[in-house]
Design goal:
Helix content: under 10%
CATH architecture: Sandwich
Structural class: mainly beta
Order of helices and strands: EEEEEEEHEEEEEEH
CATH topology: Jelly Rolls
Oligomer: single chain
CATH superfamily: Galactose-binding domain-like
Strand order of the largest sheet: 1-9-8-11-6-4
Strand content: 35-45%
Number of helices: 2
Radius of gyration: 20 Å
Largest sheet: 6 strands, antiparallel
Length: about 180
Amino acid sequence: MSAENPDGAEIVTNPDLSEMREMSKKAAWSVSSCKPGNGVHLLRDDNVETYWQSDGVQPHLVNIQFQRKVKLQLLALYVDFKHDESYTPSKISIRVGNGFRDLKEIKSVELVEPTGWTYISLCPSESREVFVQTFMLQLAVLSNHQNGRDTHIRQVKVYGPYPNPVPLQEFQFNSLEFTMYSNLR
């Protein structure tokens, strides 16, 4: 897999997914179009042999909407140039916002004959933040390899940080009984 990053988009190689949680199950998914039998559900079936296939003019869109604002760190795509050739995305745009009306592009990525999982950091390049907060994430396929018209994407996953189980507050133990149990051994 190779990728060029004209806009500073970060392709992550071998991310530590154990420190992130998969957020896709908490979202409502939709696509701009699909061929009969190759719908949006195939993006989430955990089978890299199946694929969503668009049907229509570009850009082809995958919309991921959450009920509440979430923190996202990583977008993972499974695409296969060896099998899909001209159906493989070559230029994608990643947009975030509160809904369809206020989406803003945060990353633009060019993929060169990708095969397998491609991990794209969603962290803003100009910021020190390690995640982006949003209600909606949109993946837009702007062009395909060999000027292909329709797109095949085999899987999409979105990862975010685990929530902090302990709220950030200082406990003040004043009595002898409380101080005995204030530390873990």
